Amino acid sequence: MDRSLSELRSPRTELVVATDTPGDRALEAADTLVLCDPYDTTAVLAALSAAGIDRLDGVFSLGADNPPVISAVAHRFGCPGLPLETALDCTLKDRRLEILRRAGLDVPRFATAASVEETVRAAEGIGLPVVLKPSDRTGSLGVMKVESPEEVPLRAAEALRISGGRIVVEEFLRGTEHTLAGFMVDGTLHRFGFADREYGRKEQFAPYFFEGGDTLPSRLTAEQIDEIGETVQRGARALGLDPAVINTDILRTHDGRVVLLEITCRITGARIATEVMRLATGVDPLPNLVRLALGRPLDLAELEPTRDRAAVQRFQPADGGVVEWVGDPRNVTRRAGVHDVFWGMELAPGTVVPPYRGGADVLAGVIAHADDVATAEAVAARTLRTLPLRFKDAAG
Fold this sequence. Notes:
Elements: E1 16-19, H1 24-29, E2 32-35, H2 41-50, H3 67-77, H4 84-89, H5 93-102, E3 110-113, H6 116-126, E4 130-134, E5 144-146, H7 151-162, E6 167-171, E7 175-185, E8 188-198, E9 213-216, H8 222-239, E10 244-253, E11 258-264, H9 272-281, H10 286-294, E12 310-317, E13 321-326, E14 338-343, E15 352-353, E16 362-370, H11 373-385, E17 389-391
Parallel strand pairs: 1-2
Antiparallel strand pairs: 3-6, 4-5, 4-6, 7-8, 7-10, 8-9, 9-12, 10-11, 12-16, 13-15, 13-17, 14-16
């Protein structure tokens, strides 16, 4: 969960939270807490049944990229929601790219492969460098850049092991990357957030990509953001995402192409939509997310910005080592401009921290805000440099 939902409850509302990580936010928000794997439909339905839940009025997801599960649970309980096939179309990378390509949207050149041999042929046809992506995985798990013919078989085998049997081979494009968040209703996209993705250290852990966080406001002009919004609206229509909450990843090439990397029917995660964007604009999308889940009309006035500040989220990547001592990062939040500091994984003395292999290998993160981006970035950088954490040296 990204944040507490306590303020959304009325005296007659009961909130059921299904999670495999029952942290403070989930415990605070839930009337009923159900422990299960939120990415496994069968596990979710079984856990709800075991908890005696026989009625739900609405279903939505926070902090989990699991639209097919949400659709299946909504269908089981007769709640508003997208068809399962639509959720799969916008979750499985190969299906999503094919639908967008057929609709005339600009997407990376790609091919789908189910074996090492097919991956080799696809890479040869597209031309190196290419990006390998497990079709059914999220959080950049198994996403790798391959630059030489000798690397392709090894990296293909790794991506196939992680995937459910299919990987996408994409051309590697350069440009700036951005996140757009919004609601799609009656064919119209109602944008409530737009952020720049921070990739200054993108290839530090090659062949894996490192995303350093998100930044608001964007460096793009209003006209450029509107152009991206129009492209995303076309993509959402092609995928049948209506009514739906929309999360997108977009690459804008140096020559001005707007390339769709991802469109899916979930709220932007990693606390971006619910906290980072809200700090910058004052827009809280959660009440409208609940209205959408219940099949009620949106209150579009709540999507209008009420403030104009800078907000950033920055991550510290894990890079191996053994923890010697760890403190409470929340003590750092007393500093001006620090909204929150948090560990990205469970840490204790003796914890063996893995080398970075993707978005799940984040050591820590910070959300900071200020009057301007440069100040917010400086606050975030200073905070990450003073984390209450010490590793054993090589001799130890």
